[in-house]
Amino acid sequence: MAKYGMVVDLQSCSGCSSCITACKREHSVPADKYWCDSEIKYEGKFPMVKLEYLSTRCNHCDDAPCAEVCPTGAMFKADNGLVKYERDDCISCRQCVNACPYEEVSFNEEDPHSFWDDNTAVIDGFTGTPQETADQVGANPAYAGEGTPVREEGLVEKCTFCAHRVPDKDPICVNICPCDALVFGDLDDPNSEVSQLLDRYDAKVRIQKGETGDRRNADTGPNVYYIREYCNLDKATAK
Amino acid sequence: MKLSRRDFLKVSAATTGGLAVAGLTGCRDDEPELDSLAEAEEIVAEEDGWYPSTCQGCTTWCAIEVKVVDGRAVNVRGNPNNQAHRGSVCTRCQLALLQVYDPDRVTRPMKRTNPNKGKDEDPEFVEISWDEAIEEITDKIVELRERGETYKSAVFRGRYTALNSILYGNFPTLIGTPNNISHSAICAESEKMGPYYTESYWGYNDCDMPNTKYLLLWGGDILASNRQVPHANKVFGDVIDNATIAQVDPRYSATAAKSDEWLPVIPQEDDALALAMAHVILTKGLWYKEFVGDFTDGQNRFVAGEEVDEDSFDENYTNGVVKWWNLALKDATPEWAEDKAGVAAEQIERVATEFAEAAPHAISWVCPGPTMNPRGSYTSMAIHALNGLVGSSDNKGGVLQDAGVPTQGFPDFDDYLDDELREAGQKQVIDQRGYKDMAALNQATSGGGVVTANVAQAVLDEDPYDLELVLSYWNNFNFSCGDTAKWDKALEKIDMLVHMGTHAAEMSYFADIVLPVPHHMFERWGYINSKANQYMYSTLNQPVIEPVWDVKTEETEVVWMIAEKLAEKGYPEMLDYYKTYEDPETGAAPTNGKEFTFYATRIATEPMWNPDKYEHGTEFDGWEDFVDVGVWNADKYDNFKELWGNYGTDTGLFEFYSETLKRGLQEHADRHNISIDEALEANNYLAKGEEAFVPHYEESYRVGDADEYPLMFVDHKSRFNREGRSANSYIGYYDVKDGDPGDERNKDVVKINPEDANELGISTGDQVRISSPTGEIECEAKVWEGVRPGTVAKSFGQGHWAYGRVASEEFGEKPRGGNNNTILPDEYDRLSGSTARHGGHRVKVEKI
Description:
The complex is a heterodimer. Chain A is built from six helices and twelve strands. Chain A is of the alpha+beta class. Chain A has a five-stranded mixed sheet with strand order 8-1-11-9-10. A two-stranded antiparallel ribbon of chain A has the order 2-3. Chains A and B meet through helix 1, strand 2, strand 3, helix 4 and strand 12 of A and strand 3, helix 4, helix 8, helix 9 and strand 11 of B. Strand 12 of chain A pairs parallel with strand 11 (261-263) of chain B, so a sheet runs across the interface.
């Protein structure tokens, strides 16, 4: 059985955020929620400023705290390494939200796409309304129609590694990335591109939200790896 | 089994007893005619799948594919058949889906009833049918015709397909006006001045990034915005390995973070930097001798401060390197530039040296940032001239032109004009191009270029005359031109403004008629040409879904309807002319706007898809093949050095001393009976004598008193902008705005260095007012190390007061954030006609 994971090549990543938007569209994620996200850090003083843009998502951990605390088994570790979630078994206790050190599990406090329920027009009679548009093309017109459908409030949710696409196709964030910076594959297969990249480069993982480091220092066994450096800048002057 | 589109149409025709449109022309019964007529009415995606089209969210103009499921566009990706971007798209392409399904699109034509126009006047729109709308427009055309004042009409073009050559190209002449006003001069015309006056290329160079050893970027944040975003993103990880990258920009951009060197130049002082780099290259003897030549005895006489005898140097493919040295470079030392540009002399020297050591595989990439300022034309020349010094012009790993696209022109229309229309079409253009103080030297012709933003002042002054009828499409000039308040006033004065777009925008608020138009990526036919990665290409816009609302294609269908209406009113010439747009395969004349659009697309692109007219590049076996693939690629541009000695400049050489510019300036001076010095002075340049013909230093010109307005304003482009049209996106804009370095999610921020912020008592999150002599806006402050002290930076695209519920705080009333153009001045690089939005115009920032 495969063990799926991801390698993020920080040198190739340009911080364009295409992955975030593609994920939101694929999974009908509300505007204020993120299954795919970023951690952006600036260091240094003008002009020697270093930016690091870390493309983030559920780490599909070996020892997933979210699954461990789930009282119903709705959140569970699947055989292929994915940390999956069965909405029908969820009792909305939100222990998983609190358990994830990366804050990658979110909870829909409100109806996720109520924006599209509004039937007022900005120019009455001459411009569309969210509801009219949604009636034509779906409850959330931004939804790509293939991943996780529109959900109701009161549920937790997170990155699925696009289980509906894998293994035939890469997750949508990988697929859309214009930089070829995201690589997805089987970590147990020594010939996979992810394994080869991890052989070639030192990698770091997220230890917790806002912190990266050596995988040995992460309690959770995260499976999203980061190689090379995001920021290339090493010379800047100003007079 | 999947039916091909052609099979599907055949089946449709057979099972329905023939399509109605076939009966209309009914002249021949061969199948191609049935197909082409039917296809004009068809949506390309008759079953679920991926269909090619074109993204025009910026001017990269990517060939893309749209996934259609149950008639709905659900996804996008790069067209893998395109050699330029090779399947890649940036996030703008996804935002097109948010645009086509935006909740606030205009759904049907509307007509203003409130005769008072103004920002605070409710237009009081009422219903009008398409037919009635066209009737009103046509009545106005006829009225002007009868009064002999046809020239008081205009077409304002914004984002366009190549079918703009109808509405923007020949339609204005056919109604008797010289006024086809492009948005080009608010985009980047000054950038073209360098490539044109050195190597006769009026366009945006391609750059061979995969093979370059040094990438020197001037303002161009190429990972985030124009002109080859997906290609740049795709290759940059390798460019970092293969080349040294240096970014010149007052702001820490997305690309600066990925560069080896950042040169945070003082706005508008890029010319000092570029000239000092040229100085270093020459004094160190690092110029590329195969291209530039050498001293006859091999001894380098380029010594700081010393004149050089022109006869001592034997030039190869360049013109005037010694003249350039003597006139503008000999004293331009790195130390001199340090004082001007605020970048350390040692960095200038290092970058120049390493850049030249990479010769000829070194790119000096001129972009709008350093050139769209009041004296930017010579900066553009100085930056581009560095490519001449290192022999990278038309060379591997260097800066390239393009192979061209084999397109076919539309039928000639001169027979459909009378003398009155012809004469009216020759009148002075409304934008004052070619006036003594507005040279607009596009391709060395006085008044040859557009001065987009100056239309506002011209209309207000009624100089050369007033405008009574304006057809304006896919633009929003009282949002996108500097001094938006001036544009508001000008729009108030236009008797009949017809605004055509997808959204009710700021400009619609001043319109008499608003017409909803299709989205170019999903709802219409067209095509457009572009280039990257050494490939020129032409990509089709295709109707892949049924239009969401009651739209008509402005570039063609609206024109057709006007032509029909004019014919009804006794002016049949325009319709007669457009009926000559016969389908290239069937010979059928168009009978309606949709057929007109379709045939026009097929006529123009025929040399690409008709094997009998094949010239070069991708070979298709017919239209169907072209439609299925969606993009034609030229052969790879790798015939390097062929331009050397054949540049098309007046000397045929790469001109450091520009005889071509000299001719253009002389023509402009002669036109006004003044000297070239006087002409330059009138155009706000300081150069005297021979200096005017070489890239040279010009003192910065910034609007605003430095005491009253102590900070310099840096306008920059967001990677999420579809040219100012995406701020109403439900997702993918505000929720990821921190993807623009320094910006924050769900906010509009002005970025200010901690030094300045401390002095002003401003903290991150404070609400601030930014004011200039032109206007004021409000937004949040972001204290950030990525801006140069003395400058503040803010991205363009927000501050809409009428573009939808997300983009505005309160639609029609209150903007969300601030529009940079409200504080930017109505100022120009008069040599190119460009809007001077950059250059560090002065502002003050106060906590409120």
